[in-house]
Write a structure and sequence with these properties.
495 residues; alpha/beta; Rossmann fold; 2 domains; nine-stranded mixed sheet
Length: 495
Amino acid sequence: MPSPARRAFAHAAALTAALMLGTASAHAAGALKPCRIDGIPNELLCGSLARPLDPARPDGVKVDIHYLVVPALARNKQPDAVLLLAGGPGQSAIGVAAHVLPRLARLNNRRDLVFIDQRGTGRSAPLACADDTKLPVAEQLDPAAQMRRLDACRAQLEALPYGRNGGLRFFTTTIAMQDMDAVREALGVPQWNLVGASYGTRAALDYLRQFPTRVRRTVIDGVAPPDMVLPASFSTDNQAALDQLIDANATAYPTLRADWQRLLASLPRPVTVAHPLTGQPERFTVDRGLLLRAVIAPLYQPALAAALPAALHAAATEGRFEGLFGLSTAFGSGKAVRLAMGMHYSVVCAEDLPRLPQASDPPGADFGRTDAELYSRACRDWPRGEVAPDFYKIPPAPSPVLLMSGGADPATPPRHGERVAQALGAGHPDRVQHLVVKQAGHGVTAVGCVRDLMFRFIDAKTDAAALPQDAACAMRIPRPVAFQPVQAQPEGAAK
């Protein structure tokens, strides 16, 4: 049941939505219509904008870019709306709206919140593959099975009106950010306040590069810069996060590093586990690649990672893999984190894979080239869009930027944020602040007090007052303690 405050918010937002429909000066007349979104109780506003699939052929195939507006509650609202740029690549911004609204509630008092499904995601010319979360665990994580599903998905996508004749080449970040600016114009928003997470930080940086005068403030959480070369950086950063987890739990699990190496040395081996969703027992062979993929997902969230030592110990010493594979599927089981994998590969194959041979990130000792090989195979036949050299450059920030990194993040750790902060702050270091929350995982805005910090940054009247922000509250967040399985007491034993 929603809290009284949430019910009041829903009522006020519904009333404001009705008022906004009659305010042509606030939004383009006729562009927005009342709509409802799963997980949000009140009526909101939705719209769409037809955009050329290929920017060089404005009269060619069109794709509809769909967007959601959560109107500001106050009548005397600010003109600079907040734009949420989703992660992935491949996540639907509208799909995560219900999940992130509580973090943006204070901003929504006097500012519209806008969620645009980037082309290839959600409702905007989706490049979605079949949902595989209910497949057998081994098939979900097996690289060969993944490639078979991906080849079948690509064939289906290339049969779509916007996938034919190499249409999958036109889903790059640069083209998508031009869509975002077209929506801004349609809504009559003079400037955005950008809030990007994970891949959304790459999108935000490119929007800032292409349209510097259209951005008032920028928040990027879990920085994934354009020069990252995702498959190579994954190996380096996954290894660092796993090593950090093992070191942090040396007291509770003193043999954890030895357990991990013993587990690796025991592969391949047949195992039987119960599927975490269906409960049905499954028998399959665990090899090195399958084990590494099972370990990565829990590292994204410290609360899940806290159970990883127990799961690894049970697998290494007792041959019980239920905990490990249960954790590996828990992270991606919700709709909010599900990706449109066709869009994912259209972005990564165009923007990252061509730079893989020149990547300078050293492979992790355990993870090696597993991801590089997987993406190289996936991108072998995937149509690749053109990416301008300027895409990989980060100009000095024209307006204040707040960067956030989780010290325990296995995908976008602080080293990437530090590099970007230095580039953005060139000549004007006072415009940039990089906050590192040591015990946070992939996504710092989920830390309780950070939402208020983000509000103060965006709501500040002047650029000088926006930075620096006091983040002491977030720095005190501890790492979740390691999970210890409850041991059953023999019947009649003393409590």
